[in-house]
Design brief:
Radius of gyration: 28 Å
CATH class of the largest domain: Alpha Beta
Number of strands: 8
Number of helices: 20
Largest sheet: 8 strands, mixed
Strand content: 5-15%
CATH architecture of the largest domain: 3-Layer(aba) Sandwich
Structural class: alpha/beta
Strand order of the largest sheet: 3-2-4-1-5-6-7-8
Bound molecules: guanosine-5'-diphosphate, magnesium ion
CATH topology of the largest domain: Rossmann fold
Shape: elongated
Length: 430
């Protein structure tokens, strides 16, 4: 079971709760802790977060008409947004940006991405290579700068990073955005810190970006505190969000340095840089993709759908109402999300994929039925009808029969669900 599924199941359980008491929240928090820890969020931070969520959840009564699950999801979301920020809007003005982070975190690539980002938006940019520890660093940034069509400055064989910074500033006097790439190490040592402090002094940056790769683990918080105490970090850039890492380290880093996330790197190419958007990031961190928009989608979809709850409740499910439901589902997005949102996170993936295919076919078949047939499944037992429908919809007779059999199964489930309190509430029957 993946983590998102664990968390979705916990959320589903919450849906069944009538009140949010300490036991309910604690139980939910356990799944949240698991999800956050496996996304590499620092242990202490996870505990602090879940404590805050518990306090907040218990402090006030759930507003009437609000699903406990939505209520808690919201609290979790808000607490996480507090740490990473509500979204970053880069200022289009003159600035100097100092890039720092561990070796391999993506500093050099991101330096070039940023230069291109600002240049594409009408500012002039310059790139300085102050990485004096790795011989290949000069050529790497020079090449990237050429690709981005941004002027480059570096001094091969020069060992004093602050000297390069000084000359670079001089060379780029007339540039709007000057970006300084620095050395990295596999871990933070005093030599690197001293070098960084010197560059910081000479370069006098407006922004000091800590570059953290999405797969950085538990060390991220400690790292951020060290960089912060050396030069005062002003923001985090998370790279490699296109990979398997969940960015939990970046959350720890942002929290530790008390700064927000500015940009997200989503690939090796120069264009693969996005201003930070918390929705996507938090969804990824929790394993519940697009957490916020899902909540929105499901509410709008229900509102906009042609389903008349009264009619559904009083009548039996027939092909007509079934068809309307399929239509409504389509507007909610992929079936997988719909099940997830309904708290049925444990529907097997194959079933969902097959389901999507089948639903398409079903709609075509139902489209070939007469009005009377749609309203009364029993008519299909009369000779000739199935053959006609199969012909009309371009499928085989066994497909039509298969659908009728499944429809009947579904009708049974539907009738059970109709009497289920939570389902009623979700579709506003109750
Ligand atoms: P530095 O040592 O911190 O300067 O890191 P580099 O900029 O040299 O990047 C290290 C490796 O990570 C390179 O192979 C980059 O292409 C790659 N990289 C950087 N950012 C991203 C990203 O957002 N996504 C992916 N997939 N790779 C990235
Ligand atoms: Mg580098």
């Amino acid at each position: 079971m993946d983590l998102g599924e664990g968390l979705r199941q916990a959320l589903a359980k919450l849906s069944k709760a009538t009140i949010i008491d300490s036991k309910t929240v604690k139980e939910f928090n356990k799944s949240l802790q698991k999800a956050l820890l496996s996304s590499d969020v620092e242990v202490q931070l996870v505990l602090k977060l879940t404590d805050e969520i518990e306090a907040k959840a218990l402090k006030s009564n759930i507003p009437s008409g609000v699903d406990p699950r939505d209520y808690i999801t919201n609290i979790v979301y808000e607490e996480l947004v507090k740490l990473v920020g509500e979204g970053y809007v880069p200022k289009m003005e003159k600035k100097r940006i100092l890039m720092m982070g561990l070796y391999g975190s993506g500093k050099t690539t991101t330096s070039a991405k940023l230069a291109k980002f600002y240049q594409d938006r009408g500012l002039s940019a310059g790139l300085i290579c102050c990485d004096v520890s790795r011989p290949a660093a000069f050529t790497q940034l020079e090449t990237l700068a050429r690709q981005a069509n941004v002027p480059f400055f570096g001094m091969k064989d020069e060992k004093s990073a602050d000297k390069i910074a000084k000359e670079g500033l001089n060379k780029f006097k007339d540039k709007d955005v000057i970006i300084c790439d620095t050395s990295g190490r596999s871990s933070l040592d005093s030599e690197l810190i001293e070098e960084l402090k010197r560059v910081n002094k000479v370069f006098n940056p407006d922004e000091k970006a800590l570059v953290i790769s999405a797969d950085t683990g538990q060390i991220a918080g400690k790292l951020a505190r060290e960089f912060d105490s050396a030069v005062k970090v002003s923001g985090v850039i998370v790279t490699k969000m296109d990979g398997s890492g969940k960015g939990g380290g970046a959350l720890s880093a942002a929290s530790a340095a008390n700064v927000k996330v500015m940009f997200i790197g989503v690939g090796e190419k120069l264009g693969n840089l996005e201003s930070f958007n918390p929705n996507k990031f938090i969804g990824n961190l929790l394993g519940v993709p697009d957490i916020e928009s899902l909540v929105k989608n499901i509410t709008t979809a229900i509102k906009e759908s042609k389903i008349d709850p009264k009619k559904l409740e009083s009548e039996e499910l027939n092909f007509e109402t079934f068809y309307d439901q399929l239509e409504a589902m389509k507007s909610m997005g992929p079936l997988k999300n719909v099940f997830g949102m309904m708290g049925a996170g444990n529907v097997p993936k194959e079933a969902i994929e097959q389901g999507e295919e089948k639903l398409k076919k079903y709609k075509i078949i139902i489209g070939s039925m007469s009005k009377a047939e749609r309203r009364n499944e029993r008519l299909l037992h009369e000779p000739g009808r199935v053959t006609r429908i199969a012909k009309g919809s371009g499928v085989e007779e066994k497909d039509v029969r298969g659908m009728v059999a499944e429809f009947n199964k579904m009708r049974k489930t539907f009738n059970t669900l109709k009497n289920d309190r939570n389902f009623k509430k979700k579709f506003k029957f109750g």
